[in-house]
Amino acid sequence: MEIRIYKDDVQIGKEAALLFASQILKKRDCVLGMATGSTPLPTYQELVRLHESGMLDFSEVRTFNLDEYVGIDRAREQSYYRFMFDNLFSKINIKPENVHVPHPVSANLSDDCAAYDAAIAEAGGIDLQILGIGHNGHIAFNEPSGVFSSGTHIVELTQSTIEANQRFFERIEDVPKKAMSMGIGSIMKAREILLIATGKQKAQAVKAMLRDAVSPACPASVLQFHHAATVFLDEGAASLL
Ligand code: F6R
Fold this sequence. Notes:
By secondary structure, the protein is an alpha/beta fold. Helices cover 30% and strands 17% of the residues. It contains seven helices and ten strands. The protein has helices spanning 9-26, 41-52, 80-87, 109-122, 159-165, 184-188, 203-211; strands at residues 2-6, 31-34, 62-65, 67-69, 99-100, 128-131, 153-156, 178-181, 192-197, 229-234. The strands form two sheets. It has a seven-stranded parallel β-sheet, covered by helices on one side. The longest helix is centred in the first third of the chain and has 18 residues, at 9-26. It starts with a strand and ends in a 7-residue tail after the last strand. The chain binds fructose -6-phosphate. Residues 35-39, 66-67, 132-134, 138-140 line the site of fructose -6-phosphate (F6R).
């Protein structure tokens, strides 16, 4: 695993966007795995800048997002679907039909999960997956547990994740309790992975991910087993290494 430490999140955003840009330049119709949350925002801003300056064409690019809440309307500001359009997709020339965000709406949610995995496989798999990390070491919504999950599945959010996501909702009671999430197996299938962590509040999770033995108690630690995983940290997130 390659670990690179940068001064701040702005510098990380620029470097991460370059990785995306080189992937798109190598393969115009590449498949990108996208994340929401605060961490990828500087990267998305830089991708928009590169697109606006005429350097990056997203017209053939396809994307699959990691996760989405269960029971939230896509039009709502807190939905991950809306987040992606507000922060990236509406600002670049990606085709709406090439964008995929989990959409758990069927009577049997496991059908939506199976259909999502099938769509990723049909697209040829993910070329480059971007990840953030939760304070408890989660990736996507794969929370600490006794086993690594495999494919896309429905997750009960832990109290720590509900509290961390409360900042996007008026009241903690409004945070959904369930989500649809790619599994650890789906994430590990990506050909290349970039995990970004910024801020001192992520230092403990980063230490567990990189220095402890691989264990589902820290889902992100599984990246130690990935053949092409890179980790970008700022000085705060790297402070316990
Ligand atoms: C988001 C996701 C989550 C976040 C993680 C960190 O799609 O899958 O695992 O990456 O919760 O969130 P931020 O970046 O807001 O600290």
